[in-house]
Amino acid sequence: MIKLYGSTRSSAGRCHVMLEECGLKYEALKLDMANKQNKSREYLTLNPNGKVPTLIDGDFVIWESIAINRYLAEKYKPELLGSTIEERALIEQWSVWSLVEFQPDLVTMLIQMVFVPEARRDHLIIEKANARVLEKFEILNTHMRNREFVVANYFSLADLNSASVANIGLGLGMNLGDYPHMMDWLMRMKARKSFKTVAERG
After folding, report:
1. Domain count for the chain
2. Looking at the domain assignment, is residue 201 inside a domain?
3. pLDDT digits (tens, 9 = 90+) for 161-199
4. Which of 36, 104, 130, 166 is found 20 to 30 A from 177 (Cα to Cα)?
5. Which residues contact 9 (CB under 8 A, 6 or more apart)?
6. What is the reported pTM?
7. Residue 121 sits in the same domain as residue 58
């Protein structure tokens, strides 16, 4: 059976969603980060970064969420990767953009607003990260005007990866009302069975 290290509330969340989209049975494994289980010799053998997610499929081990999702799509649900060279390239483009350009500032805000005690929060860091996030919201909102999906006319890995990042903004309580096209798309993604199943699992 496939094994996935990482909780649904971490970067592994998008991998949980991907496994659900593929209809695969898997074992979800959590690491006790507080006690540095992720730094144990056993886990570092699987993932030398000591981070999540890490996926084990038989004798094959892979880490990094975007790489895991691409692997799962290639092996179990290739239709999520596009039907033409151009679609595949655009799906890759939006997936990479979401993880490289969009997610870092949202994670910065998450750390400051959730994990740093209020007395120690750096509001300038939050303000600057928020400004950059709003720029990304505008890019995605403009792109989603008159579109149902990020690429082509069907659900793809670009939707899954991008929605998993945009959803962090909702979790932070950000007002997305100024981005109606993005918000409409995000709500439709969250209404998919895969997203709902993972959200309900918590």
Report:
1. 2
2. no
3. 999 999 999 999 999 999 999 999 999 999 999 999 999
4. 104
5. 202
6. 0.94
7. no
